[in-house]
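Co-fold these.
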Amino acid sequence: MSEMEKISGTGVYVQGNDIDTDRIIPARFLKCVTFDELGPSLFHDVRFDEQGNTKSHILDNPNYKGAQILISDANFGCGSSREHAPQAIQKFGLKAVVAGSFAEIFHGNCTTLGIPCVTMEKSDREKLARLTLDDPSADIIIDIKALKLVCANNIFDIQMKASAREAFLANSYDPLDTLLVAAADVAQTAKRLGY
Amino acid sequence: MAKNLYQKIWDDHVVRQLDSGQYQLFIALHLIHEVTSPQAFGMLKDKGLKVAYPGRTFATVDHIIPTDDQSRPLADEMAEKMIQVLSDATSEAGIEFFPPESGSQGIVHVVGPELGLTQPGMTICCGDSHTSTHGAFGCIALGIGTSQVRDVLASQTIAMDPLKVRRIRVEGALQPGVSAKDVILHIIRTLGVNGGVGYAYEYAGSTISNMSMEERMTVCNMSIEGGARCGYINPDDTTFAYLRGRERVPEGDAFDVAVGKWRAYASDEDAKFDDEVVIEARDIRPTVTWGVTPGQAISVEENVPDPDHAEGLDKSLISDALNYMQLTANQPIKGTKIDVAFIGSCTNGRLSDFREVARLIEGRKVAKNVKAIAVPGSEKVDKAARALGLHTIFEQAGFEWRKPGCSMCLAMNPDKLVGDEVCASSSNRNFIGRQGSPTGRTILMSPIMVAAAAIEGAVADVRTTFNLEQTS
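Predicted complex below.
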């Protein structure tokens, strides 16, 4: 079984449509040459004021400490292509994102890093969000193979991009090794196109 | 079988299908910069890999470069380090690098086209979402993340799912005072910020055909703001005339051969599209954003929306955006006071943008209390503008004329809003905190609308500020 077939943990709901990657990680934190230190800056300006005082964001609520599944709304991750956004999500300790829909570059970046992005119907998503708001310790299991999400005795249908699901089930979500295998075909393509 | 441009380029560049169902796509041109690419070289090193096709990657610095004093070492140590890492990595790999004062440095999406590196029929990648700009030449131009930058460096390919194609036909003549920026803001406003998810946008119709290459770049640039992974315009005589004589474009007979090849990439007349939308140019007015996404836009004649007329999450999105912008439901956007005016960016930092503004602001003055800056998109734009004396016109009007870079579009350099300042901006994103202050406020608009706002000290209608003739 692929290590990515099932993901479990508690959830945290960050509300809002069109949450952009500038909000996930403001540009000033992009001044770095590695991604290692990005975790604490996740959603920085939503969580802290300009003096660095907490704004009591849900991610800083002790009840949600250790949450592993981020739940949000439509068009999550829109805007800049910065991989710093999914890197910050991963380094913060989150393992998967459930949303209404995803912006494509963000989705691709998450997949390559091994962060499954799954979508749920609005009514189901609202119910899931409510479950985590009522009981922050409610366990969630995302079953990528069965395309189900289980939380507090509720079983929800989830959707995933087919190619991403295949890649997670085959443990080949980082495509680099696969791409390198075809070096000879790549060279031929380059030659055929006159590049 | 008839094909559209997207299908033709895709079919040409597919290496093979992968087990996941995705395709391995050959990348003809790879552009890199100092923010999203140095990490990729580290990843290669960790895996013991080399750059496979160094001649197909080009590098410059744009995001963090200061626009006042660019002398090295830069005052900001981390900025200096990022440039140094990129410089070392490209030199080690044999990748051509355009640093400041090379004569070719600038915003990566300005540099590629002006050097003629960007050519019709190419697949183009860059670790930057505004790579869609290059689609103006008839390319599949994709923004990618750092891991994919690594993939391109190591294999000159990426793994990708094919996109659907939506043709957006814009038909008719634009009214005076309405520019390419208004066209794309109007499209995003109409189709939504996620309306393009899963699609490539083909921009077509008489309005688009009549646009210059620089106007076309403005339109394609903001495709990503409408959720589309890329946007393109079919190559035509305007495209070829722009490319002729550029530094990296073939000359003489080879140019004619290239034109034949390029022309063949244009969508066939009977090509099929997954969706089609028609927009009438006469419906487009000078457009500005009022909220915190590029889709939260209205014409300058309109009032900002009222959350009481919306439902559910939309209601909270509108009221949150109005609160952040410190606007009241139903108030006119015109007259909203501004503190800063910014003309520049990969959306509107090209020669024609500055020329058009200079024509209007000559002999006029920026309002007191407005800080106005003009940032050319590249060293070549700067040089050409200076040769025309445009920088003097800007300076006499009260603008600061800066050195090239991304500057206040994303404020990774010292050009930032302070506190809750309001900026009339020719850039592409009005996200919360985008211009460097967590409470800063951005109002997106065309460069000539920024000029009008700078002069009036408030959001203004370019048509009245500069007495532009109205046709209907």
